[in-house]
Design goal:
This protein is an alpha/beta fold. 42% of the residues lie in helices and 14% in strands. Strand 3 (125-130), helix 7 (135-142) and strand 4 (147-151) form a beta-alpha-beta unit. Helix 4 packs antiparallel against helix 12 and helix 6 packs across helix 7. The longest helix is centred in the last third of the chain and has 23 residues, at 284-306. Bound molecules: pyridoxal-5'-phosphate.
């Protein structure tokens, strides 16, 4: 179905419930009439689309967390700064750290960029694996820093020796554990080796966005030991708060000071209450980790039977070799109502697929069989039916 046909149908459905004047005033309806969508990743798609492109958790916050969120929403007129300070202290203590070692943000994108900006520059490069989450590449580029992209080893592990050797003037070494997009973990002994052997003056940034899904060992205890280390975490993944926004950075105070140079914003009181409730929920991580692993293992069994290679993921996403250009694969899946993730330039035929619910992964499998039946020429001719979703998710 073309986007315009889709938009028209959705417009008619939605506008039926509202006076036309109200409907026309709303952004979604402006989009239907041809204007840019204000929120292209989320609006104007059919309800039955399977969204396994953004590494999101398939369901929302827990009922208890939503209750806590709702309890403060009516007081949204107040800044409630003290709540931010209080929760920052609680969060630090939760990780065995003193309060000055934590800063909370609306997600981990800001501390990721700010850490990169603080420790790279024209004379201080960034070293990362490739493929990995690219946000640091862009921030380093903006700082005029050189970016060294060190290929993963054949088994998808980090080549830490090559990363440390990449540049004696490295300012920051970024380690994503588990790695996005492969979902493969980085061994703690490898991170320890990097910390011991890195160029003097370089800082190591460990991004633990997906660690809760995996058996990877956190290095937060090394922050307590005052290493040259920044650890970032987010509630956008297993805690399903991508749209609600909550994340944090942990580092010794003199390093944190350099991040703070780039500013902190007021936190949403709703997000704080929601995050706090889930952080102290003893069952959430275990239950969700298992649900994710079950859906992922079922998909891996299927892919193995079909004879397709995939990355050894412990996270809520993996790479699969589609044996065709990733953009074409994404368009083919989208034509079957399954939205998969993107590819990386260094592995152009491998697409990232997020792990959804069991039901969503069954839909992925059905679509996969169909897509792989398509001769390459037919796939080539197919346009992506939701072009606004193609690059919207930079997750
Ligand atoms: N780090 C990694 C590895 C990610 O994949 C993402 C987003 O997908 C982020 C950080 C930033 O996410 P957020 O700002 O929602 O916390």
């Amino acid at each position: 179905m073309s986007m315009s046909a889709l938009s028209r149908r959705r417009f008619i459905q939605l506008s039926g419930a509202l006076p036309v004047s109200v409907a026309l005033a709303r952004p979604a309806f402006a989009a239907a009439s041809g204007a840019a969508l204000p929120n292209p990743g989320l609006m104007d798609v059919p309800a039955n689309l399977v969204l396994i492109n953004g590494n999101e958790y398939p369901s929302g916050p827990t009922p208890a967390a939503l209750k806590a969120l709702n309890a403060v929403a009516a007081n949204g007129n107040r800044y409630y700064m003290a709540e931010t300070t209080k929760f920052t202290g609680e969060l630090a203590a939760y990780h065995g750290l003193k309060p000055g070692y934590a800063t909370i943000y609306a997600g981990s994108s800001e501390p990721l960029r700010f850490t990169t900006m603080a420790f790279t520059g024209p004379a201080k490069s960034l070293v990362t694996a490739d493929p990995t989450f690219e946000s640091a590449w862009r921030a380093a580029d903006a700082m005029g820093a050189k970016v060294h992209k060190v290929p993963l080893k054949a088994d998808f592990s980090y080549d830490v020796k090559a990363m440390v050797a990449a540049d004696p003037n490295a300012g920051l070494i970024y380690i994503c554990n588990p790695n996005n997009p492969t979902g493969a973990i980085v061994k703690r002994s490898d991170i320890e080796w990097v910390l011991e052997n890195k160029p003097k003056g370089a800082v190591v940034l460990v991004d633990e966005a997906y660690i809760h899904f995996s058996d990877a060992e956190s290095v937060i205890d090394l922050v307590a030991k005052d290493k040259d280390l920044v650890v970032i975490r987010t509630f956008s993944k297993i805690y399903s708060m991508g749209g609600l926004r909550f994340g944090y950075a942990l580092a010794r105070p003199d390093l944190m000071e350099k991040l703070l140079h780039y500013g902190v914003n007021s936190m949403a009181t709703t997000a704080i209450q929601c995050a706090k409730t889930m952080l102290f929920d003893k069952d959430l991580v275990l239950l969700r980790k298992k649900a994710n692993a079950d859906a992922r293992d079922m998909t891996f069994e299927f892919l193995s039977k079909q004879g397709y290679a995939f990355s050894p993921s412990q996270a809520n996403h993996f790479l699969v070799d589609m044996k065709r250009d990733g953009r074409l694969a994404a368009a083919s899946f989208a034509n079957k109502s399954v939205i998969i993730g993107r590819s990386w330039a260094s592995m152009p035929t491998w697409s990232r697929v997020s792990v959804g619910s069991m039901k969503e992964m069954e839909s992925f499998q059905t679509a996969f069989v169909d897509v792989m039946k398509d001769p390459a020429g037919k796939v080539n001719a197919m346009a992506h039916p939701y072009p606004h979703l193609e690059d919207a998710f930079r997750c």
